[in-house]
User: Fold Secreted protein from Streptomyces ambofaciens.
Amino acid sequence: MRKLSAAAVGAALVGISLVGPLPSASAAAAATCADNYDNALAGYMYAYNGANCEGQLGLAVGNDQNWGDSASSFQGSDTNRASSVLNMGRYSQVKFFANPTTGSAFNPHICLTRAEGYASNLSDDYFMEDPVFGSANNSISAHIWVELTACSALAQ
Ligand SMILES: [Ca+2]
Ligand SMILES: [Ca+2]
Assistant:
């Protein structure tokens, strides 16, 4: 086997350095809810089709007890689509439901506090904080504003 000369080794090292990882010229900023939160209107809650507050479905200053009807802030295909939510409200919490809040049947919920601010990926959250009630992702069908003590299950 032929021994490499010092010059050849040096050239090889230079070659290695040249084919090393290039610095990323324009690393796109990762999507986050932080900028949405900074720009959110005081008094409103927001819901988004995507995680990280991408693809706004709508915003609401009041309640909308059916996200699939043709009235109020969320309508039609908005139901069962939210994947992230944000709370810039004046009340303590937004209470999200798995079903429209009509009738008296048990309706699993998850709440987002004003202090929490936003839940950037609802696939991390289960209704009632229990997998038995299903993921909150793509499953919210209603919301109401409630006082701090009105919720037991909190989104994170
Ligand atoms: Ca979605
Ligand atoms: Ca509605």
Residues 6-18 form the longest helix (13 residues).
